[in-house]
Specification:
about 1050 residues; alpha+beta; Neuraminidase; 5 domains; 6-stranded mixed beta sheet; 14 helices; 54 strands; about 40% strand; globular
Length: about 1050
């Protein structure tokens, strides 16, 4: 008993339990702070805006946008802020992904975040003022929502958990975009054509439905029919009584009835408009589909100059967007880029806002990657699949849509500096960069003319373009720029409408583009000779990428083949048109375009509404341009969170005064760079009060921290002497006092080095409460002497001291599904010297690999854990065990708690159980293999679409070997034990079947049936553990 208690206490400290967040993480990807940002702040009337010098100009403008949005949302919610809200701005998404304000990894699809601890809005600039304004407006809706939900002035409890995500996000999208949204309308038409429009109940429960798009559409319907004030009122009432009741109280209608009305309205509004238009399967020749590529998503097509090959981005690897090259005729994938998991040179491919470009000879392909906190241009030799060149651009930390010149000497791209996008020209021979535009207008999606003299691009400059005084935004339109003179000509076939994704025809006489002028996103051809516009596609849904501004079309510069992505059947597929199919029919010019197809129902709105009015009024609430005075950022810790405190006190009774409870306090600064945690807990008498304090600094690339703690562990058992009617209640306390400092240096998001040094003391205190019930009741407390002061009998161990350090190299490029990793790999190599009461070195080598063959994963693991040096086989601190459940070294079928006395075979001494003892040793080696199958899960990952209880079943085999110094392991299979013989150090092996369940995202439960081959008496049995799959 005593040995197991002390061993458990040692495990507590040696496994790195600390108050430092992420300090002792065994595996896991790294959030790398590649750059150190020197933040400053400015104060406006309602916001405290944080920025760094690079983005000063754009931040000044964003501050004005924020105040305008405050006025709008304040009128909508009839609410005023009582103090300034923090707004933290980053110059681009590569910088934003390094933020410490949000603890987890941030993907490319995250445009901004509003968090609840300090009610901070954190977001990147987008390079296009209109889009930055939209994201800011969306996030500031959340700011008002949190202000309502977290208010302490209202006596009525507000529960955000009562509201579905689609209501929260849909409201934010509607109040920042309004009803005129061709991109969301495209989603609705697709769902209506498939008769798959969700009810509110389905939208709340079924993960197939995107909450932003459908939530926006529902809120637009409510605003159009009942008035925009009703949208705010549903939220305010719903947080108190739930959505269903809020709809009845606010609108006088049930959720079911409103859902039916909305679905009918969508079908009535959109289905007649699709008549006479081409369904997706008639849009052209289907090339990249789920059937041809094996992926559900095919986007950003880029066709080679000769039209034979197409590069595209897809999630056919399931967990990560990667670059593929396919036959442009058949869609057969012929090459795959070695992704970030196996290529240490980049972290991810830029995919939402960028496509790539072929060299004129079709032998190389240029695309944008995230590298070391910035964007780089990567040049792929597509025949070998290897990146042959990487190019970074000084002063331009984010860029998109590279375009290779016809002579192969230059690559044009849209780059961002300080949150503002401009056009740049890269000389491929000298790597020199020339800036073609230099202003606040957004300049995006460059494309070369065949003669190499002109670039077409997308911009918001020109007549009726963006006005930076009033922050009124012009719709993006086409433009051309002469490379030599830098003269710009604006091209607007459809005034007031969006024009995107320009591509020249091979003869240079036409310019293809995508426009939503009539509410449908179609491809058009603009003749540069006669200035006429021709419609090439007439789709029921639309030619589109993931977002409204994502690239979706490419034209082969030699053959003229066109390839474009179409949204249909709730996904994206790529189609092809031959040159003679891209001529199109003339579109007659009109002044006012019918945009009915872009408007979210109801078709007959109650009125323009509050949202429509403020979106058409750029001046109300907008402060005058001002050079807000900036001040240096000073880090100051503020309380973020108090873990719900618990406390209880009892007095009298057998044990006297007892206390139980605990509290945790967590502090951080505004930017999340400095973090402090304080935990205090009690469970027993006052000597059982313990706590820990931990600090973590994440400001720079090297994350470092320290912790100090006093942790009491209390255990007890009871013995009874029937002869004397004496009951002994034994309390064993172990006091762990530790001081630890450590740091982590991430080489990339998948590799890092960890180093820590610490001191730990184990103190022991045993007490006996003796109760004698023989005639007269007596109670006596007996202090147990220290073992150094006692020559015999029960004693309390002397204190144990260690100075310990750990150096580890960790890699993790695995992809975790619902219950376990299913793709990639992990590894850890660790050296941990211990000096003190005992001196030894602990070595850990752990390697895991996962091979995904949809839907099955083949998982393999090999691990060695060994203590070397002055190691005693019976030491409490160096002995390891293969049978502890919920640990890294657990061999299923050999759990400590599963052994029974009748299956123990004595060794030659007659005092040890062979079945148990051969699981112990100072050194362990183990191996495991599993075949994992997702039984229940999502539509993308699961044999059955049931995401409410994700379930994995697997066949497994485990093997382990334990030995100590001076013993010789024997690699042989032994399933019979002869009594009275020395213990042989042979492998223990088990096999069986396992099921893992994800319990509502909180924990993973594994239930397994294992047959332990080295326990013939036991046979197969069922066990469980609460631990994710290895």
């Amino acid at each position: 008993m005593r040995r197991s208690l002390i061993a458990f206490a040692a495990l507590m400290v040696f496994s790195g339990i600390a108050a430092i967040p992420g300090h002792a993480q065994y595996f896991g990807r790294n959030k790398v702070q590649y750059d150190s940002f020197d933040f400053k702040s400015i104060e406006t009337e309602h916001f405290e805006v944080y920025f760094y010098d690079e983005e000063r100009l754009a931040s000044q403008d964003a501050s004005r946008m924020a105040e305008r949005w405050y006025r709008r949302h304040s009128r909508t919610y009839l609410r005023e802020f009582k103090k300034r809200k923090p707004l933290i701005l980053y110059a681009n998404d590569a910088d934003f992904q390094q933020t410490n304000v949000i603890g987890g990894m941030i993907g490319q699809g995250t445009g901004g975040v509003t968090e609840s601890l300090k009610e901070r809005v954190v977001m990147p600039m987008t390079g296009l003022y209109a889009e930055t304004d939209h994201v800011l407006g969306h996030e500031l809706v959340h700011s008002f929502q949190y202000d309502i939900a977290l208010s302490r002035d209202d006596t009525t409890r507000f529960g955000l958990s009562l509201l579905p995500l689609w209501l929260i996000e849909g409201t934010a999208e509607y109040l920042s975009v309004g009803r005129d949204d061709p991109h969301t309308a495209m989603w609705l038409r697709d769902a209506a054509l498939r008769d798959d429009l969700p009810t509110m109940d389905q939208l709340s429960k079924d993960y197939r439905y995107f909450p932003y798009r459908y939530g926006q559409a529902y809120m637009a319907y409510v605003g159009g029919k009942y008035g925009d004030a009703a949208v705010a009122n549903i939220y305010k009432m719903g947080g108190r009584v739930g959505l269903d009741s809020a709809l009845v109280y606010t609108l006088g209608i049930t959720a079911d009835s409103l859902s039916k009305e909305w679905i009918t309205s969508i079908k009535d509004s959109y289905l007649p408009l699709t008549e006479g238009r081409a369904p997706a399967d008639s849009a052209g020749r289907a090339v990249l589909t789920k059937e041809t590529t094996g992926g559900d998503l095919s986007i950003a097509p880029s066709v080679s100059p000769d039209g034979k090959w197409v590069a595209f981005l897809s999630e056919r690897d399931l967990f990560r967007i990667n670059l593929f090259i396919a036959d442009a005729e058949t869609g057969r994938v012929v090459k795959k880029l070695k992704g970030a998991n196996s290529n240490p040179h980049f972290d991810a491919i830029r995919f939402i806002s960028s496509a790539g470009s072929w060299s004129p000879d079709g032998r190389k392909f240029a695309f944008v990657t995230f590298v070391q906190g910035d964007n780089e241009l990567s040049i792929l030799d597509w025949n070998s699949g290897e990146i042959e060149r990487r190019i970074s651009v000084a002063g331009v930390t984010a860029f998109s849509n590279p375009a290779w010149s016809p002579d192969g000497n230059y690559i044009a791209f849209s780059g961002m500096d300080g949150g503002i996008s401009d056009l740049y020209l890269l000389d491929m021979k000298t790597s020199n960069v020339r800036q073609l535009t230099n202003d606040r207008f957004g300049d995006l999606m460059p494309a070369w003319s065949p003669d190499g003299r002109t670039l077409a691009f997308v911009t918001d400059r020109g007549p009726d373009g963006t006005d930076f005084q009033s922050l009124e935004y012009g719709a993006v339109r086409l433009a051309t720029i002469d490379i030599e003179s830098q003269a710009i000509e604006i091209i607007r076939p459809f005034p007031g409408a969006k024009h995107m994704n320009p591509q020249f025809s091979p003869d240079g006489l036409s310019l293809y583009f995508i426009s939503d002028h009539d509410g449908f996103k179609d491809i058009y051809r603009y003749s540069l000779d006669d200035r006429l516009t021709y419609q090439v596609t007439r789709l029921q849904t639309g030619a589109s990428g993931i977002t409204a501004m994502s690239p979706a079309m490419s034209v082969a510069q030699q053959s003229g083949r066109m390839m474009f992505s179409v949204f249909s059947d709730n996904t994206y597929a790529v189609f092809s048109l031959d040159p003679d199919e891209t001529i199109g029919t003339v579109v007659e010019p009109v002044e006012d375009h019918d945009r009915t197809a872009a408007l979210l129902p109801p078709a007959q709105a109650k009125d323009v509404g509050l949202v429509g009015n403020y979106l058409s009024d750029p001046l109300t609430g907008l402060p005058n341009p001002s050079d807000f005075p900036a001040k240096e950022y000073g880090a100051r810790l503020r309380l973020d969170y108090v873990a719900p405190p618990t406390v209880g006190v009892s007095t009298g009774g057998y044990y006297g005064t007892q206390v139980a409870g605990g509290v945790g306090l967590y502090f951080s600064d505004m930017l999340g760079d400095h973090n402090l945690g304080v935990v205090v807990q009690a469970n027993g008498t006052f000597k059982d009060i313990g706590g820990q304090v931990g600090y973590l600094n994440r400001k720079r690339r090297i994350n470092y921290g320290a912790s100090i703690g006093h942790i009491p562990l209390l255990y007890g058992f009871q013995s009874i002497d029937p002869a004397t009617l004496t009951i002994d209640q034994i309390r064993q306390r172990i006091f762990i006092d530790n001081v630890d400092i450590g740091g982590s240096y991430p080489f990339s998001t998948t590799r890092r080095a960890d180093l820590s040094v610490g001191f730990v003391r184990y103190g022991f205190d045993y007490e006996i409460d003796r109760f004698v019930l023989n005639g007269v009741y007596t109670r006596e407390r007996i202090s147990v002497p220290k073992c150094s002061d006692s020559s015999s009998g029960f004693c309390s161990p002397d204190a144990v001291y260690f100075v310990q350090s750990t150096l580890a190299y960790v890699g993790d490029f695995s992809n975790f599904a619902f219950t376990s990793p299913v793709q990639g790999g992990r590894y850890r190599v660790q050296v941990s010297p211990f000096v003190g009461s005992e001196t030894f070195v602990r070595l850990v080598a752990d390697y895991r690999r996962y091979f995904f063959a949809k839907p099955v994963t083949f998982a393999f693991r090999g691990m060695h854990l060994g203590n070397y040096g002055e190691v005693d086989a019976g030491s409490l601190f160096t002995e390891e065990y293969l049978g502890y459940a919920n640990t890294l070294t657990h061999i299923r079928g050999y759990s400590f708690s599963s052994f029974e006395p009748n299956e123990c075979t004595p060794d030659e001494s007659g005092t040890r159980c062979v079945e148990v003892e051969r699981l112990r040793g100072t050194r362990l080696a183990l191996a495991s293999a599993e075949i994992r199958l997702p039984l229940l899960g999502s539509e993308a990952f699961g044999l059955l679409n049931f995401p409410y209880l994700p379930t994995e079943i697997s066949l497994f085999a485990d093997a382990g070997l334990a030995w100590s110094a001076g013993e010789t392991p024997k690699l042989k299979f032994v399933d019979e034990i002869v009594p009275g013989q020395p213990i042989e150090r042979v492998p223990v092996i088990s096999a069986g079947v396992s099921s893992r369940f994800n319990l509502f995202g909180y924990m993973v439960l594994e239930i397994f049936y294992a047959y332990p081959f080295q326990r013939p008496v036991k046979g197969g049995y069922v066990g469980f553990q609460l631990i994710p799959g290895w």
